[in-house]
Each structure stands twice: as C-alpha cells, then as structure tokens.
C-alpha cells in the first residue's frame, strides 16, 4: 500500500467519525420571504444571496438544508430560527 493510499484511508475514517448534522427549514403559509431571508442571515450567517436561494428552495421544494455542522454549533442557530416563528429542525 502506497503512502498516498494510507493517507486517503485515514482521511476516510476521520470523515466517518465526524457526522455532520443539518438544520432543515420547512415551508409554511405564514412567514414572508423577507422575514425568512433576514432570519437566515442573522441565525446562519448567510449572505443575502444564500438566504434568498434557501428561501426560494423552501418555498418551491417544501424544505431546504440551511446549515450543516457540529450539533453544538447548530443548536443555538436552530433556536434562533424557531424563535422567529419558522419551522425548522436539526437532523
């Protein structure tokens, strides 16, 4: 086994050991586009363009993963989204 293969194998194992969680936002008939965009900018540190794209996906697809990462980082972000009255969960 070459050194390159060993390094790749070690990287693959590390990736498997650190699963990322996701914040998923769901569509509703209550919140406006502007409200969801502003919330994603504040809660997820999105750029206005990212927030707008996610909001469009939520509207047309019914849901969108808006942030991935460590559970410790995602919990307060998801709480901010929920406090804004937007349906979301960490999966």
TrEMBL record:
GO terms for molecular function: peptidase activity. Coiled coil: none annotated. One of its GO terms (biological process) is proteolysis. Gene3D superfamilies: 3.30.1390.10. SUPFAM superfamilies: ClpS-like. The keyword Oxidoreductase does not apply. Pfam families: ClpS. Keywords: Hydrolase, Protease. It comes from the Bacteria. Residues 18-83 form the Adaptor protein ClpS core domain. This is Clp protease ClpS. It comes from Lacinutrix venerupis.
């Amino acid at each position: 086994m070459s050194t390159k293969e060993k390094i790749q194998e070690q990287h693959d194992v590390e990736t498997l050991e650190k699963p990322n969680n996701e914040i998923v936002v769901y569509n509703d008939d209550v919140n406006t586009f502007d409200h969801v965009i502003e919330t994603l900018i504040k809660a997820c540190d999105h750029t206005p363009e990212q927030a707008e794209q996610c909001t469009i996906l939520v509207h047309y697809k019914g849901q969108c993963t808006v942030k991935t990462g460590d559970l410790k980082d995602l919990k307060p972000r998801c709480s901010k989204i929920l406090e804004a009255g937007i349906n979301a969960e960490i999966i």
